[in-house]
Amino acid sequence: MSDSLDARTRDEIDDQVAEAFDAYLADRLAEPGPLRTSLASKRSAGTVLGTIGLGTLATALAPTGGSVVCWIWGAIAVIDLAWLLTARCR
């Protein structure tokens, strides 16, 4: 009897945690983020997609050293963050 009670209690707790997590995610998705703000201000995502495309090409053509690839993607991250954050300021 206690095993079935434990199983039911665990199921109820799991359901409550899942509902709370779903509500949390729904609230987070409703908040405007930098990408949503930039798209709402009619700025295209072409800059971000272009840098990712160029980064992929540069990674494929880069020498075998890992430091070069890290520098490439670090620069891309800085460019993309700057682009997204400037949309937030406008």
Overview of this structure, please?
- It is a single chain.
- The protein has 90 residues and is mainly α.
- It is built from 4 helices and no strands.
- α2 (34-40) crosses α4 (66-89) and α3 packs antiparallel against α4 (66-89).
- The mean pLDDT is 77.
Topology summary:
Layout: H1 2-30, H2 34-40, H3 46-61, H4 66-89
Count the helices. How many? 4
Structural class of the secondary elements?
Answer: mainly alpha
Unreliable spans are: none
Level of helix content?
A: over 70%
Output mean pLDDT.
Answer: 77
Q: H/E series, N to C?
A: HHHH
By DSSP, the count of extended strands is 0
Tell me the strand percentage band. under 5%
Apparent shape: elongated
Largest pleated sheet = none
Distance between the termini: 63 Å
The radius of gyration is 22 Å
Summarize the structure.
This protein is mainly α. Helices cover 84% and strands 0% of the residues.
Features:
elongated, mainly alpha, 84% helix, single chain, 90 residues
